[in-house]
Structure formats: C-alpha cells, structure tokens
Specification:
The chain is an alpha+beta fold. The chain has three domains: 127 residues, Alpha-Beta Plaits (2-Layer Sandwich); 62 residues, Molybdopterin biosynthesis moea protein, domain 2; 76 residues, no CATH class. 51% of the residues lie in helices and 14% in strands. The chain is built from 13 helices and twelve strands. The strands form four sheets. It has a five-stranded antiparallel sheet, with helices on both faces. Strands 6-8-7 form a three-stranded antiparallel sheet, covered by helices on one side. It has a two-stranded antiparallel ribbon with strand order 4-10. Helix 1 packs across helix 3. It is elongated.
C-alpha cells in the first residue's frame, strides 16, 4: 500500500513538473473541455494539431498545483482556473490563439443533445411551422415554454425561445423535443473555453469573432484615426498629402468669397461681379442705353484699289454717254439754222406805215 502511494505520488509529481515545463515553454495556454468527446475523435484532433498544439489531460487538482507554481512567472495565469470545466484539459501552443480557435472550431461536427449534457451555447428554438399534428404535443411544447398555434393543420411555434442557456444542463423533455424537431445543438470536438496570452484571458465570445467583422472594424478604426488626425492638424505619411490638398482648396474658397483676384480665382470673381451687376440692374429696372451712332465717314469703309478703278471706269462711261447726246443736239441745231434763214428771206418785207410815205 505504501509502495502504491509512493508510485502515485511520483506520477503526480512528474505530471505537475511536466505541466510547469509546458507553462514556461509555451506563451499561449488554452483551457479545453473534452467532455462527451469520443476518444477516436480526440486522437484525430491531436494528430491534426500535432505540429501546432500540445494537449495534456489530467486531474484538475494537478493543474491547480502547476498553475500555482508558475503564477509568479506568468502574470495572470491563475485567471484561467475558472475556465477548467467539465472534463478539463490544457492546450499549449505558440500559434495565434484566434487562428488556433478557428482551426479547432472548423473540425467540429453537430450532434443531438442528450439528457444531462451541458449546453455549449444558448439553445434556441425559432418560430415557424413544425411537422406535428395538433394533439398532446402542444402541451409538451408548452411545458418547455414555447407558445404555439395551429396553422394549415400543423402546430406552429409563435416566437423564438431560448430553451437552455449556455452552461445549463439539458433536461430530458427538452432533449426529446430538440431531437423530434431535428435540432442538433451539440458540437463534437474540442470545446475551448478560454485562452491565456501575455497576461490576458480571451473568452470564447472574443475568440469566435467573425473575420469579416474584424476586418471591417480595423478599416473603421483606420478611417476614424485618419479623420481625427486631419481635423487636429496632425501631419503624418497618411495625412500630409490630403491636408495639403485641403489647405489649397480652403485658401481658394476663401479668396473666392473675399473677392481676392488670383490666377486661380480671377475668372470666378469677375463672373460673380458680372452676375451681381446683372441682378442689380434687373432689380432696379435700368433701361438699356442707346447705342451711339458713328459718323457716316466712319461707317464707310475704304474701297479696295480694284473697286476704286472699277468705279472710275463706270463713271467715265456714264459721262461719255451723257456727252454724246449733247453733241448730236448741236449738229441738229446747226442743220436747222440755215433752213430757218432761208425761210426768213423768202418772207416779204413788212409794209411800212402810210405815214412814212408821205
């Protein structure tokens, strides 16, 4: 008997020493619950994660002893104790805890709930039709808190209901209803309850963050910090170019509003003045000023040399045509004048008065 106790003590001491060694060697430690996990699947998980993760199963009391020995070297490691639930195991790794958690979760498979099992998360029965015909099942559904009705000859659940909260034990009647509804809330695989890294404890709800949501949050944080730096006038490689462009745009806008003429604002300032003038003119109903007439001499355009020559030739022809009829008239008059003299000779002299004869 004494020999058995000595052997048991030696075995426990070796286990604790091994745990202490692992705590010191690996910066990241996870608390794992392997309850209800079939042995073949556990071995399969160990094989898949062999290069990244080391899993050690032992009694919770030995884990507590090992953690107590290293708590001075690993600050905050004792905060992992409350997460050693069910059938606990410790997981040691040097990989990113979020990546490891994602890998473990991907390997899980759904399974029906059994009476007495602990819910790994809130188990919800959603509203909607069921395959059940009206009958005693309505009372069974009501016993677990479900509001029901009859639609199209079938029992229908009226609203969503959490029938088992995370960490609670699943009752036999709840397990029966879940099975009949085809709901498999359990997950066969390693159940990581928390992970320790550099003094911080990451719970399951933190480790299970959606990747896309995580990326979106980082993008938002970057945009908010950029906006803050710009508004505060903090220049850095990200904001310098934008701030210079913004300053140039602001200075141009200020010059435009203050009617300051520059190479970039002269067109806009003059255009603004023109619009204001037209608006004031329309408001005061000022008539249009008559246009001044230019002297006739100004209106006449100087003729081209070719046109002047042509005009002279036309005038000479007009004068020649006017002179020719005048010469013809003179000749006619010359011909008529001798005839008139002859006619005068042929006429008898007028008789003198009788007084003269006497």
């Amino acid at each position: 008997m004494a020999e058995y106790k000595a052997r048991a003590a030696d075995y426990k001491k070796k286990v604790v020493d091994e745990l202490v060694k692992l705590f010191k060697e690996y910066p990241i430690v996870g608390a794992v619950d392997v309850e209800n996990l079939p042995a073949p699947q556990l071995q399969k998980m160990r094989a898949q994660l062999r290069d990244k993760v080391k899993i050690l199963m032992t009694k919770r009391r030995l884990m507590n002893l090992a953690i107590d020995k290293v708590k001075d070297e690993k600050k905050g490691i004792e905060e992992l104790l409350p997460y050693l639930k069910g059938m606990p195991a410790l997981m040691f790794t040097k990989e990113n805890p979020f990546a490891i958690y994602k890998t473990i979760n991907k390997s899980k498979s759904p399974a029906p709930a059994k009476p007495g099992q602990t819910a790994p998360k809130d188990i919800v029965i959603t509203a909607g039709p069921t395959p059940f015909a009206p009958g005693p099942v309505i009372g069974e559904l009501g016993a677990i808190g479900l509001k029901t009705g009859v639609e199209n000859g079938k029992v229908a659940i009226q609203q969503d209901k959490v029938v088992v909260k995370e960490g609670e034990e699943i009752k036999p009647n709840v397990a029966s209803i879940l099975s009949r509804l085809g709901i498999e809330p359990m997950e066969i695989g390693l159940n990581v309850t928390a992970m320790y890294e550099d003094g911080s404890i990451y719970e399951r709800n933190i480790l299970s963050v959606d990747e896309q949501e995580y990326i979106d949050n980082i993008t938002k944080a970057h945009q908010w910090s950029f906006n803050l730096a710009v508004e505060a006038g903090i220049m850095n490689p990200e904001t310098t170019e934008f701030m210079i462009i913004k300053a140039a745009a602001d200075s141009k806008a200020l010059a435009r509003e203050a009617d300051i003429l520059t190479d970039e604002t002269v067109g806009e300032v003059l255009g603004k003045a023109e619009r204001q003038m037209q608006a004031l003119k329309a408001e005061l109903n000022i008539p249009e000023a008559p246009a001044e007439e230019k002297p006739a001499e100004d209106k006449k355009e100087e003729s081209k040399p070719e046109e002047q020559t042509q005009e002279k030739e036309e005038k000479a022809e007009e004068q020649a045509s006017e002179e020719k009829p005048a010469e013809d008239n003179k000749e006619e008059q010359a011909q008529e004048s001798p005839k008139e003299g002859e006619e005068k000779k042929d006429e008898p002299e007028a008789s003198k008065p009788e007084g003269d004869d006497q």
